[in-house]
Design a protein that fits this description.
Blueprint (H helix, E strand, L loop, with lengths): L33 E2 L2 E7 L4 H16 L3 E5 L5 H9 L6 E4 H8 L9 H16 L1 E3 L9 E5 L1 H6 L5 H9 L6 E4 L1 H5 L7 H4 L10 E4 L2 H9 L5 E5 L4 H4 L4 E2 L11 E6 L5 H8 L7 H12 L5 H11 L4
Parallel strand pairs: 2-3, 7-8, 7-9
Antiparallel strand pairs: 1-2, 4-11, 5-11, 6-9, 6-10
Helix pairs in contact: 1-13, 3-4
């Protein structure tokens, strides 16, 4: 089993849509050095759509505030970005609270309160690494179980507790789509049936394994009645898939926030970067991701349009 709380951050489920890298020749020189009153920032990211959008939001804000920005988006996963941040090769990247808690800090205690988890992560990063977590987004890009609209309505399913009751009444003739990892993970299908009290019926439910990006369409078409996905994937909105509410809750928390070395922050920079974060709800982030993965727009233009439309630049 993959330990509870650990997740491969490259399997987010949103397709790539990266900004063209520019200015790499200066990527490792003079991070945050003074230039005509402004500063120089190297901004890195992980290699999936949501990260490109978030990092471009930060870059646009910094540029608008008069700072010079070097783009290193798509650097790699959490280890690569965290290492770059600690080695002065990056000045900012967006990390997820659940990833930091389990993968970086190596904690296995489950925390179901987003604010409490954020505070613990921020405090630990400050004390151990001298890294600040700026404000976190309202959206939580955690695992979700989506359903075929007609099937869940027919069976009166709105929550995972409803699903547990449905299964325990002897209804196991349905399929759940997921990738191999989610089938094994303790914090996904590997542990969910036991947590919700239908573990003894789990073996009777058919699991259909496929790439995570194919799950949403398969559920919409009825090839599976339920499927595992990610909360901010735009295909949930595109296909009109209902999410079974995690009422316990069981799934871990993944609120992202910009990570910046403490000694490289000023009050003005914090205020600049924090300002639009409150507007990044699940619905908003799904729409932003959709503009890249479904409409084919560039993450840079999507980020800038979001900031302009909301009066931030």
């Amino acid at each position: 089993m993959i330990p509870h709380g650990r997740r491969d951050d490259t399997t987010n489920g949103t397709e790539n849509g990266r900004r063209i890298l520019v200015g790499l020749s200066t990527a490792f020189s003079g991070c945050l050095g003074l230039i005509n009153g402004g500063k120089t920032f190297v901004v890195s990211s992980k290699n999936f759509t949501e990260q490109f959008v978030l990092s471009n939001i930060s870059m646009a804000l910094l540029e608008h505030a008069g700072h010079e920005v070097t783009d290193k988006t798509g650097l790699g996963g959490s280890p690569a970005n965290f290492k770059a941040l600690r080695n002065d090769e990056s000045d900012l990247y967006w990390e997820y609270t659940g990833t930091a808690w389990a993968n970086v800090l190596d904690k296995d205690t489950d925390i179901s309160n987003p604010k409490k988890l954020y505070n613990k992560v921020d405090s630990a990063y400050n004390e151990t690494y001298n890294i600040d977590w700026l404000e976190y987004t309202p959206f939580n890009n955690t695992y979700v179980i989506v359903g075929n609209p007609a099937w869940v309505e027919q069976n009166g399913l709105q929550t995972l507790e409803d699903l547990a009751k449905f299964v325990n009444e002897g209804n196991t003739n349905f399929k759940v789509a997921m990738n191999q990892e989610m089938n094994q993970r303790d914090d996904a299908w590997g542990g969910l049936p036991n947590a919700y009290g239908f573990g003894n019926k789990k073996s009777k439910i058919d699991v259909v394994q496929m790439k995570i990006g194919l799950v949403y369409k398969a559920v919409k078409q009825g090839k599976a009645q339920l499927g595992f996905g990610f909360a901010t994937n735009p295909k949930i909105r595109q296909f009109g898939l209902p999410i079974l509410k995690d009422t316990k809750p069981f799934f871990n928390i993944y609120n992202p926030a910009p990570n910046v070395p403490t000694d490289k922050l000023t009050t003005d920079i914090k205020e600049t970067l924090n300002e639009p974060t409150k507007d990044l709800t699940t619905e908003t982030q799904q729409k932003l991701n959709a503009k890249v993965t479904i409409e084919g727009k560039d993450p840079k233009s999507v980020a800038e349009d979001f900031l302009k439309n909301n009066g931030y630049i």
